[in-house]
Amino acid sequence: MKRKRYSSEFKAQIVLEILKEEKSLIELSSEHGIHTNQLRQWKAQFIEQMPQLFTKQNKKQEKMQADYEKQIENLYAEVGRLTTQLSWLKKKSGIHYD
Predict the structure, then answer these.
(1) At what angle do helices 8-20 and 36-93 cross, to 10 degrees?
(2) 3-state helix, strand, coil in the chain (%, to 5)
(3) Of the candidates 7, 55, 84, 95, which lies 20 to 30 Å from 17 by C-alpha distance?
(4) 8: alpha, beta or left? (left if phi > 0; alpha if psi -120 to 50)
(5) Distance CA 74, CA 91 (A)
(6) What three-state secondary structure class fits 79?
(7) 28-48 residue pLDDT tens
(8) What is the rounded CA–CA span in Å between residue 14 and residue 45?
(9) Which residues fall in a coiled-coil region (predicted)?
(10) Does residue 49 sit in helix, strand or coil?
């Protein structure tokens, strides 16, 4: 007999139904054809991993911020190099703009 596989979206939907507590586990089990122990396991897994969801999100934001700051730093460095080159070219060519 082949094991049934459920998508993560489906599991999330079922766990949300469990958390709403509008129906009992037995009702949801019967309605979806999934054993109550499996439903308990999905709920426990969700609750256990929920804090990590926010940690991952914060890490993504921190990485984006660091990347942005590095890009700004690189742009300022490039502006500095170009300004120096422009000054050197003006000096060598004898052109003075003020």
Answers:
(1) 120
(2) 80, 0, 20
(3) 55
(4) alpha
(5) 26
(6) helix
(7) 999 999 999 999 999 999 999
(8) 13
(9) 58-85
(10) helix
Q: What is the DSSP letter of 3?
A: P
How many C-beta neighbours within 10 Å does residue 43 have? 16
Q: At 40, which amino acid appears? A: R
Q: For the whole model, what pTM was predicted?
A: 0.54
- Tokens representing residue 24 in the block: 């009992």
Interatomic CA distance for residues 17 and 2, integer angstroms = 26
Structure tokens at 88: 């050197």
What would the two tokens of residue 55 be? Answer: 């940690």
φ and ψ at 24, to 5 degrees?
Answer: -75, 165
Match 């060598």 to its residue by tokens.
92
Q: Which residues contact 39 (CB under 8 A, 6 or more apart)?
A: 14, 18, 25, 28, 29
Q: Is 39 helix (H, G, I), strand (E, B) or coil?
A: helix
- Below-70 pLDDT ranges, the chain: 1, 96-98
